[in-house]
Structures are given as structure tokens and as C-alpha cells.
Amino acid sequence: MKWxxxxxxxxxxxxxxxxxxxxxxxxxxxxGSDARRVADYASMxxxxxxxxxxxxxxxxxxxxxxxxxxxxxxxxPQAMAAIAAGRHVLCEKPLAMxxxxxxxxxxxxxxxxxxxxxxxxLRNAGSHMAIRALVRSGRIGRVLSVRVHHAVFLPxxxxxxxxxxxxxxxxxxxxxxxxxxxxxxxxxxEDPVDVVAxxxxxxMGEGVEDSVMSVWSMPSGAQVFAHESFTHAHAGTGIELHGxxxxxxxxxVMTQRPVGEIELVTAAGRHTVPYSAHNLYAQAVKRFVxxxxxxxxxxxxxxxxxxxxxVAAAVKQAADTGRRVAVGYGI
Length: 331
Ligand code: NDP
Description:
Elements: E1 2-6, H1 10-20, E2 26-31, H2 35-44, E3 49-51, H3 54-59, E4 65-68, H4 72-84, E5 88-91, H5 99-112, E6 116-118, H6 126-136, E7 143-151, H7 161-164, H8 172-188, E8 194-200, E9 211-217, E10 223-229, E11 238-243, E12 246-251, E13 261-266, E14 269-272, H9 280-292, H10 302-321, E15 325-326
Parallel strand pairs: 1-2, 1-4, 2-3, 4-5, 5-6, 7-10
Antiparallel strand pairs: 7-11, 8-9, 8-15, 9-10, 11-12, 12-13, 13-14
NADPH dihydro-nicotinamide-adenine-dinucleotide phosphate (NDP) binds near residues 11, 34, 121, 158 and 175.
């Protein structure tokens, strides 16, 4: 698979360029908005072509697929251009700034016959795959509740648009709640019905929220509590799923790396759950490439991206209005 990278970003530099080069892939292009910076970025990552013009990248007919990791407000126009040019698109979360725009991306990809994937990395983690398998096998019985702990400290090099630019998609809800929505949907196999929420600026956010707590109701009757933040240096992350027959307690697993511990607690005692420690992003690319070649689907499809964004949008609306908000999926 020959890739064009759209967005001279940190996530591409730290995780995705390496992952795209797996499975025999090559990265042929990188596109950014600053000519000098993107040329330096291309040189640093040994990418042969670079520029500020997406059309030039898309005019290279040898490029099979595009990975988009620009700031959030650029995802829609860049993805639409790539889809119109007949390229498969792996796009970062949130897919777009609104649910309607994300749904339009899904429709456009379907009409053009190209694959659209959303880079929700957590469902590619061995830890989360093991948790999901336990839930699906009935080991904890009927799920009663889920608690997601995803309050972290945003490192200084990421404290740009995320903490001060709503027009670029800043704020913890667009950044992290959207991942937690995807992860809970992955584990439970159902989509939240409605949500309540309160958000706060607790020391980092400048005009956008840096912390949020929300409660979601699920069609099965299960309740979900989610806590996301940019300001918690020592809280650690985790997810707990509590069922009628047992609980799954996972610590340190809401992360980009294949780390953390999972414990299954039932009447029979406490058991450590083993899992595969593969690279999350490599797994995401592997699934996407297979889908582009006609086998299966991306780990998180475009529809998953729309639905996870819809939950995050409902959490934002609930926090802004102080009301209980029904999730509008738009597809
Ligand atoms: P960055 O801030 O690193 O990059 C986003 C854009 O900002 C770049 O495309 C670039 O614009 C510009 N930029 C970056 N660094 C500089 C700089 N030093 N000087 C000037 N401009 C700069 O964002 P992230 O990599 O953290 O996030 C990008 C996207 O990826 C977001 O949509 C985010 O939500 C998503 N993401 C997903 C993760 C996941 O695990 N799935 C993890 C982290 C982020 P341009 O390209 O136009 O030049």
C-alpha cells in the first residue's frame, strides 16, 4: 500500500508513519500547510515527496490511500478531496467537527467505493480485545455498568490547539471522550441512548473544557460513567466492567501502548487475564489495508467514527445545556 500522509503531525511522527510502513507499505508523500516545515518533516522521516497542495498529492496516481492527521477542522475537506480522487482514507478521530459532516464522509466513501476507516486505536489493543472477548463469552454475565477512567496529563508538546482553539476542534470531549465512546461501544456492542454531563476548565483549558464527567444510558439498561481530563498527572487510566456474574478491572489500558493489567473477578476468585502485546497502530493499519484489498473491515469503520463522534457531541451538548441529551447518530 502506497500512502500519502496528510498533516505533518505528532501522531504521524510518533506512531503512524512507522505503522504505515509495516505490512510492506511505503509512505510516498506528506502534505502540510507550511512549505518549509513540511519539507523538514519529510526529510526527517525519509518521505520522498512533500508539499502544501493536497491536489498535487492526489494527482500522483501511484498513491493508493491517504492517512489524515491534521487538526480536526481540516479532516472533512481533506477526506472529501481524497475520496473524490478515489483514494481509500484512514482518518483520525474525531472524523469531523459535526456528526452531519462525518456522516457525509461515510456516504461519499460508500458512493465512490473506497474504504473509510477511523483511527480509534484502543479497539486494536490486545488488552481491549481480551476484555471484549470476556464480555462476549458471558464470563461476567449481564453487564450492569461500565466505569471509564481516562483523566491524564496532556504533555506540553500537545498543549497547543487542544487547549485553546475550539475552531480547530480543541477540548477534551473531542479529544478523549470520543475514544471512550468508541471503546465502550466496542465492548458492549451497543450504542448509548442518552447522556448527562458536566464539564470544567480545571487549569489548562483556555476557552475550551479540559475535564468532563458524563453518564450514559445503554439500550440494555447498562449505565456508563466516563471521566476524561487533560489535567490529572497521577490518576492513571482504566476501565471497569461490572456484570451479574463478575467484574473486569483493567488498569493502565486507556493508552497508546500495549500495557496495563486486566483482572477478572468472579465467585471463583481473582484471575489475571493475559493478552497480546502487539502494537496498536500497526494492528489498525493491518486491518485497514486488508479492508482496502477487499478483506473484512477496518477495525473502526467510518460508521464507528460517526457514532463515537455522536456520543461526544451529545456529551458536549449536555455539558453546555445542563440537560439530558439523546444521542443523534445521523446515519
Ligand atoms: P499536532 O498538533 O501535532 O498536529 C496537527 C497539525 O498541527 C499538523 O498537521 C500541522 O499542520 C500542525 N503542527 C503540528 N506541529 C506544528 C508545529 N510545530 N508548528 C506548526 N504547525 C504544527 O496534532 P496531533 O498529532 O496530536 O493530532 C493530530 C490529529 O490526530 C488530531 O485529529 C487528533 O485528534 C488525532 N490524534 C489521534 C490519536 C490516536 O491515537 N488516534 C492520538 C493523537 C492525535 P499542517 O499539517 O497543516 O502543517
